[in-house]
Amino acid sequence: MAAITDIPVRKGSEPPTAIELKHRRKALRSSILRYSLLTIVGLIMIYPLIWLVGASFKTNAEMFSSAGFWPKNPTISGYIEGWQTSTPYTFGRFFVNTMWIIIPKTIGTAISCTLVAYGFARFEFPGKKFLFMTVIATLLLPNVVTRIPQYLLFRDIGWLDSFLPLWVPSALAGDAFFVFMVIQFLRAIPRDMEEAARVDGATTLQTLIYIVVPMLMPALISVCLFQFMWTMNDFLGPLIYISSVEKYPVSLALKLSIDTTEAFAWNQILAMSVLALAPSLIVFFMAQKYFIEGISSGGVKG
Amino acid sequence: MAELQLKGVEKTYGNGFKAVHGINLDVQEGEFMVLVGPSGCAKSTTLRMIAGLETVTGGEIRIGDNVVNDLVPGKRGIAMVFQNYALYPHMKVRRNLGFGLQLRGKPKDEIATATGEVSEILEIEKLLDRLPKQLSGGQAQRVAVGRALIKHPDVFLFDEPLSNLDAKLRAAMRVRITDLHKRLKAEGRPATVVYVTHDQVEAMTMGDRICVMKDGHIMQVADPVTLYERPANAFVAGFIGMPEMNLVPVVLTRGLGAQVTLDGQTIDAGDELARRLYCQDGPVTLGIRPQHLGVVPAGSPNSLTGTVTNIEFMGHEVNLHAKVGNAAFVAVVPSEAFDRATQRGDKVGLTVSGGHAHVFDVSSGENVSLRGQLN
Fold first, then answer.
1. Residue B90: left (phi > 0), alpha (psi -120 to 50), or beta?
2. Over residues B203-209, mean pLDDT
3. Cys staple from B160: which of A271, B42, B83, B266, with CB 3.0 to 4.6 Å?
């Protein structure tokens, strides 16, 4: 019997042989099966999100009457009333508070992680190994363990009920994961360019700013994205350190509407949840290209 | 432009490994000095110490009148061309060229004039608005040279700049760099160059003088002709020249001439060699370049009889490999003079012309046949 490689290549005009038709049918069946399976699994995974968006346009009464996501009598009352909140402030205030936490924290993280990672990746100094091990050890330490000592520390400094406990640890490269990620990325970048800059007369700081940071950009965008999304979703941090409602971020405000209302206005909560999801999604899709580049080249190369 | 001096320069790494063993080297103003040697001979380390990218753990490096040991690279008056070009990937060629001047706080119009001038010399005017990733290897290398040139440094440092290019482009760039060096000299601003390579063709064709290094020691510093004709030791003799010099252990006896005995066969290498020798009779290493080894029919007078082990036809010449006892020889024979009937396993006679032969001390490797020839 002839092997597949022995079959002569046919020109397009000639009708396909029985073997070719059989192969094509097999490939088609396989594709249909694979794509159907992927679509079903994908839908199952994304359905809660679709339901969330659909339910935010339902009335409170309709919410639990059916599992379908399509509202029978679509209304935006959930959005309007949810926005007003039961507090003296609108949800806009809580969004502003969230941004007040996120933006300085993200900027601080990017700057501090770059400085610390650059130090670890490029310089030799006494105790480097021990310090690096310490950084990695904090990466493995569960957050909960440090909560109480941190709380006591910030209470003694007098930073409770301010954004400082949320900003300062990140601005001092407290997020070991990001430091580690940037170090890995830096290790994959050859040193030649930095040496060329030094020969060109650049100081260490100039080399960092003009040469290293532009090359690190994909990694830094990933760092900022992660920090943005994680801070947006952070509930425990603000819950511990912030007590005044006027300083609440979105994550606490959503919980607030559950606490204060006897009969929960679920449609309002869901409507505000949809809005709370929006910033992360928008930022993610805007920076998606760099994000993938940043996390994929961090560990693979070098 | 300035003179470069290395006095007893040493490099010992933190783990105790000594890479450079107190080397001394003077590079004259406007001279093209090539550092050459096999991998791991510390030629790049030496260059990086001159650049200030490696610390100097002993000795002194002078550029002009200044000791630069403790100066940062940017203050040493050097410019360097890297093996991987090391162009800044996010900057266009124009900014890559002008970055050094920008850091020195030069005004924009001065940078623009200098960029224009350099790009004209290197014919890269059309590439100024491209990013490094849009350049071919040869173009990127020219930009890298331009980045060095624009700074008018006292000393140019090249770290194997052509090793990433294909053979044809490498030959073209070789000519371009030597032309540039000559052109700068003619224009009255001679460039002092230290050029690192492992390629002896680059070394021989480009250098005014060549510094051959091995294991962190300088083996010889000389112009290409001297290096080829009067190698100071067996290492240099073997390193320079293609195919490499035949170095075989023989027993030397001086009577009327210089008799060498190999595998029980004795030939006379002649009076001329005998006059040049300053060593005792006994075991020595005989060095003879393949081009100077004669091939005659087996049993001819005053020849060593050997067995052909391989024949390489190179076109205009033939490399004939033969063994005399355990000693392997290569002879280069012009194609037209080669007996095409010769086969592997045939017996041939090998003649040594004493005028071109060298004798090396067995233990030190020193060339002991340079009497009357030393400059």
1. alpha
2. 94
3. B83
Q: Do B100 and A206 touch (CB under 8 A)?
A: no
Is residue B72 over pLDDT 70? yes
**CA distance linking residue B276 with residue B254, whole number of Å:** 12
Here the ipTM equals 0.85
Query: Which of A196, A206, A210 is the closest to B86 by Cβ?
Result: A196
Q: What is the predicted pLDDT for the residue at A299?
A: 41
Q: Could you give the C-alpha distances from B122 to A117, B67, B145, B190, in angstroms and in order?
A: 38, 32, 8, 17
User: Number of Cβ pairs closer than 8 Å across A and B?
Assistant: 64
Residue the block writes with tokens 């001092």 = A172
For residue B243, say if its preceding peptide bond is cis, omega within 30 degrees of 0: yes
Rounded Cα distance between A73 and A70, Å, is 9
pLDDT on residue B375: 37
Write the DSSP string, B117-173: HHHHHTT-GGGTTS-GGGS-HHHHHHHHHHHHHTT--SEEEEESTTTTS-HHHHHHH
C-alpha distance from A202 to closest chain B C-alpha (Å): 6
B128-164 per-position pLDDT tens digit: 999 999 999 889 999 999 999 999 899 999 999 998 8
pLDDT given at position B373: 53
Chain A interface residues facing chain B, Cβ-Cβ under 8 Å?
124, 190, 192-193, 195-203, 206, 210-211, 214-215
Per-10-residue mean pLDDT of chain A, 302 residues long, equals 49 76 92 96 92 87 79 85 83 93 96 95 92 90 86 94 92 90 90 93 94 92 91 91 91 77 74 90 84 58 32
pLDDT of residue B353: 81
> How many residues does this entry show for chain A?
302
pLDDT given for residue A8 in this prediction: 53
Q: Smallest CA–CA separation between B197 and chain A, in Å?
A: 17
CA–CA gap between residue B314 and residue B317 (Å, rounded): 5
pLDDT average, residue stretch B267-272:
86
- For B39-61, write each residue's pLDDT tens digit: 999 999 999 999 999 999 999 99
What is chain B's length? Answer: 375
Q: In what order do the strands lie in the sheet with B4-12?
A: B18-27, B4-12, B58-63, B66-67
Dist. CA B91–CA A7, nearest whole Å: 53
Q: Provide the β-strand partners of residue B288.
A: B246
* Residue B106 DSSP SS3: coil
CATH 2.40.50.140 residue ranges for chain B: 236-360
Q: What domains does chain A contain, in order, with CATH numbers? A: 17-78 (no CATH), 86-300 (1.10.3720.10)
A197: closest chain B residue by CA: B100
A198: which chain B residues are within 8 Å (Cβ-Cβ)? 52-53, 72-74
Is the domain covering B236-360 a CATH 3.40.50.300 domain? no
CATH topology of domain B4-229: Rossmann fold (3.40.50)
- Taking the CA of residue B138 and the nearest CA in chain A, the distance in Å comes to 18
Q: B348 pLDDT exceeds 70?
A: yes
Contact, A179 vs A219, CB < 8 A? no
**Where in chain B are all domains bearing CATH 3.40.50.300?**
4-229
Taking the C-alpha atoms of residue B329 and residue B289, their distance in angstroms, rounded to an integer, is 9
Q: Which pLDDT score, from 0 to 100, does residue A253 have?
A: 87
Helix-then-strand count for chain B, H and E: 9, 20
Instruction: Indicate the DSSP class of residue A11.
Output: P
